Amino acid sequence: MPRSKRLNEETTRFMEDSGYGDPNEVVVLTDGEPDLAGVANDLPYDSEWILDWAHIGRMLRRVDQAIAPLAYGRLTDSGSAFELWDLFVRFRHYVWVEDSVAWQQLAAKLTRLLDLRENRDPALSNQVKKASYSLTNVIAYLKSNFESPIDYRTWQRVGWRISTGFVESSINRIVGRRMCKSQHMRWSRVGAHSVVQLRVALLNQEFHELARRQFPWIGQRRVTWPWQKTSRDF
Prior knowledge:
Blueprint: H1 4-17, E1 25-30, H2 34-42, E2 46-51, H3 53-67, H4 83-96, H5 100-120, H6 125-144, H7 152-157, H8 165-179, H9 189-203, H10 207-214
Parallel strand pairs: 1-2
């Protein structure tokens, strides 16, 4: 993409400003977007490509919701009363611990059980097709990023990040709504940049010094900032 070079330069500069330099290792959490792969691979760091669990989890949730109405019923002689559901739970577990051989085997079994469920009760054909479609999507997604999933359970136990869902949620709720989704009170790019700088200064408790430099009169009055107790009038 034409913007990859600029993204690479900006990302490298951001990493350096954040204290990352050679020989640091960098973990990139991604949704599998090819553009990001090109940028990450060109960074002057040893990088590891990790598939964001938030995206996998959302896709598995769709399969879960589609299978739930179909869960009851033994479909094979050795299956349980909730055979379809039990198999999906095992499939989800093996994706979670990154056992690629096991989840692929269970994916094939799940596909076969869904076919059996449709043949057993044709009235549920639409629901079965919906479940099959959701299952096919998650399988294709995992296979297209085959080297990226990791043992998410182990990473979570040692305190390493496995998802950026909270970041995406914040972007969607704040930046997306205020700048892209036609709210009545929209932010300009300059205004949004100023708000971000203000929030960073507040979180770092640097706003007082910044304000005194910009507005010398503040140094002559008692001002209380959000991290301090509420003050009375001047």
